[in-house]
Each structure stands twice: as structure tokens, then as C-alpha cells.
PadR family transcriptional regulator (Streptomyces albiflavescens), 354 residues
Amino acid sequence: MLELAILGFLYDAPLHGYELRKRITALTGHVKPVAESTLYPAIKRLEKADLLARATQPGSVAAPRHVLTLTETGRNELCRRLAEPAQRDITDENRWFTVLAFLRHLDDPSAQAAVLRRRLAFLEEPASFFYSGDRPLRAEELDDPFRRGILTIARATSRAELAWLRATIDSLDAGSP
Amino acid sequence: MLELAILGFLYDAPLHGYELRKRITALTGHVKPVAESTLYPAIKRLEKADLLARATQPGSVAAPRHVLTLTETGRNELCRRLAEPAQRDITDENRWFTVLAFLRHLDDPSAQAAVLRRRLAFLEEPASFFYSGDRPLRAEELDDPFRRGILTIARATSRAELAWLRATIDSLDAGSP
DNA sequence: GGAGGATACATCGGTATCGATGTATAGAGG
DNA sequence: CCTCTATACATCGATACCGATGTATCCTCC
């Protein structure tokens, strides 16, 4: 996830680690903060895998900046991860939002639509947080007000997202018939 | 998170690991699956910390079941974690839903309301995923349809949750004036 | 001129989690 | 009879992440 965000931000422009951190914090930080000690090792991993290159730029301010640039391999890898996200990236909202944030970098509208369809399929299958046997329970069937809250909120999210997904898939299909 | 779920389920009734796993999978598994190799070490951790006790029940089916029971310490610890969740548990929806799923185990309505108020405060502060300088951007200001989607969905969730939070806090306050 | 904060990177220990794999038994189905 | 699946637990190595801490510079404000 973090790696996807790094690759995604660097796709637009070369950045140094600190700036990257600020952007990632703005994107997902209010929900799930990222520690510096997570970011820098992640950058190293990606560098080691040759997905990004580091150019030391000394003197400008304080400690010497390491300006990070996406390599050709890195750009391909980003597209691959966007086009073929793991199932986790589809189901977990945190991860899914990160995919969405960079999905525009896939240049093929039908590939974008395919990713949205996977999320659509996930949201369309009947699922709940609570079951009676195998049957998903509805909010109204629960005594516990807090568990009812979970279902109420999840349902609202699901409705809004389904509407958005269907509309966006339609317009992507219309754009490239 | 996982630990909270384990403690929460055991609060109701003693269970063995496998049953625990099925319940956790039902609760959060469609969004974020839990591997067995994560669950069993977690159980061991909790046992080592004396939060739960294990009673081997041989012969019933297949491998001998280890029936897990919450200790007095474990029950207190669950309540402590529910009453004083980490900030992460408030901001991250996955974690927050787990807190909500077991919040009924706090017997004090005003303590329950206090937890809901923390979430309320988090949702009320202006935040976005995208900024222009320091100003949070609205969905309408974005070109990227996918990023617009993120904001659209987040806004719908936020609205539904705010309404539910306010109503529930009111009714908790009314119940214990 | 000195304190404090922002910038910018880094390391280290600890731990949570995952994926793969293993071991056993019971029951269903062919 | 044999295979497959479900039940039930366990280990192991790899890795991702966190929290604490460290280093160094520059700028601002008092």
C-alpha cells in the first residue's frame, strides 16, 4: 500500500523523501498515519528493486535531499499493480482508496473499468458483519445499537459507492466503445 | 485489533480457536481476512499475558480442542481497551468497526458515549484526502474522476455516520441523565 | 544570542502479520 | 476403499511496520 503510494506520487514528478511523506500524510494520514521509520525503509526496498533511482542533491536545505525518480521498471510496476491489484486492495477500503487515488495513471480506460468492476463485484455480493447461521443479518434485526450502527454506516457507504461505480464504469465504457 | 476481537468474542462465551476464527472471519473477514498463522500466536500472546485461560478438551472432534475462557484480568483489559481506544482505533474504519462491534460490553452508557464522541470529534474536523496548499479540496474541484469518487464516497460515509453518532449519543445521554 | 521548530534523513529493536507447510482425525461421496 | 473436505491446531521464515532515538542544518522569534 505504502509502496503503491510512493510509486504513484513519483509517477507525476520526482520528489525527495520528506516531501513524499507530506503527500502520503495528506492522502491517508488522517486515517492511518505513516511513520518515518516505515517510509524510508520502503524507499530503500523500492530502490533495491530498481523501481526508483536516487539522486543526492546536496546543500539546498538542511540535510542533503535524496531526489527520487521513478525508473522505467518502476513505471511499469506501478501500472501492473494498478491493473492487477491483490484482492486485499479491492476489499479493504484503505487500500482501495489508494488504488483509486492513482488509477488515472493507467492510460487504458477499459483497464480502469476492469478494476472498478472488480470492486463492483465485491460490493454486490451479499455480505454482512453479522450472521444468523449463514444468513446475513440486517440492521433492523440487531438489538445492539452499536452493531446496528456498523450496518447502517456500511450500507450508506455501499450505496454511495455502488452508484458512483456504475456511473463511472458507464462513462469509461462510453468513452472507448 | 485482532486481540480486541478475540477478547470481545470470548466475553460472551468460551470458544475454541477454530470457532473464534470463523467468527472473526464473519466479522471482518470479507474486508480484511485473518490468517490462521496470525490467530494462533495472538491467542498465545493473550494466554501468556494471563488474559485468557486454555482448557484442553480431548476426543470430541478431530484434533483436541483448546477451549478458551476469558480471565478476570482479560475482562478488565477488554473494558480498558474499549473505554480508552488508541487514536488509530478511532480513525481507521477497520479498527473502529471492531471497537463498535464490542462496545456494548462497556456497561457504562456514559463511557460508551465518550468513545462515540471521540469518533464524532474526528469526523467533525475538516479533512480531505487532497489539498491545495492547506485548504481541503472538494470533490467538485478535482479533474480526476477517481479522486472525485474517493471524496464522494467518503462524504456519504461521513454523513451517515455523523447522523448515527449524534442520534446514538443523544439516546445514551437520555438513558443516563 | 539562544531556544525552538521545521527540514531531512537514518538506525535499531521489537512485534504483528503473512504465506507456506505440516499433522491428525472424522465424515461425505464416488 | 479411497479421496476430498472440514475440523483443529501448530511451526517457521520473511517482512512490514512501529516507536524511540539520533544527527545535522536552517530559520524565526524573542
Notes: Residues 40 and 47 of chain B are 10 Å apart (CA to CA).
